[in-house]
Amino acid sequence: GAVVSQHPSWVICKSGTSVKIECRSLDFQATTMFWYRQFPKQSLMLMATSNEGSKATYEQGVEKDKFLINHASLTLSTLTVTSAHPEDSSFYICSAQKIAGESYEQYFGPGTRLTVT
Amino acid sequence: GDSVTQMEGPVTLSEEAFLTINCTYTATGYPSLFWYVQYPGEGLQLLLKATKADDKGSNKGFEATYRKETTSFHLEKGSVQVSDSAVYFCALTLDGFQKLVFGTGTRLLVSP
Fold this sequence. Notes:
The structure holds two protein chains of two kinds. By secondary structure, chain A is an all-beta fold. Chain A is 0% helix and 57% strand.
């Protein structure tokens, strides 16, 4: 199988604080992980591509200083929302890329709901 | 830019009904096309894919055909079950399965 977990599944924090979300590939190694954001009734928007051992690649319009990504090992990537504000409230989803020969497939975590009060 | 448009939901059907969820795309090149499914409380799972024109992806009774002339990849199933209730996402990628561009998702509700 290929299982990806996220922790926490939901979090409530106060405005101005920072929140860290973890994404783990449980039974495979992933050199590449992706972070998405999903607003209600809207599609998943790719925020950044996380590469193990190197800096993340951010999509246009995503503030890299606000959304810090660290991919420190082949099974773990973290997203830290710094100085969170209510507009950062959203559903954050990660995926991990599994490579088998010439086949690439992304496996998704269940998501983390962030509410900033 | 590249985009995916899919029909708004929810789609409500009775068990054993025929399902169609429309998906059209706009892309500058020749994308690969995907359908993902998200069951309640779970992550997105790849349902099926097609990598070139006229390919048909199929899985679990679902199928979709890559139609280049109409830039479409409609999802169909001949007889839905209650267990098919989920949110379905159409998506594309142009770079060998790296960056996925998703549609807004369509919720399917199947009643007994």
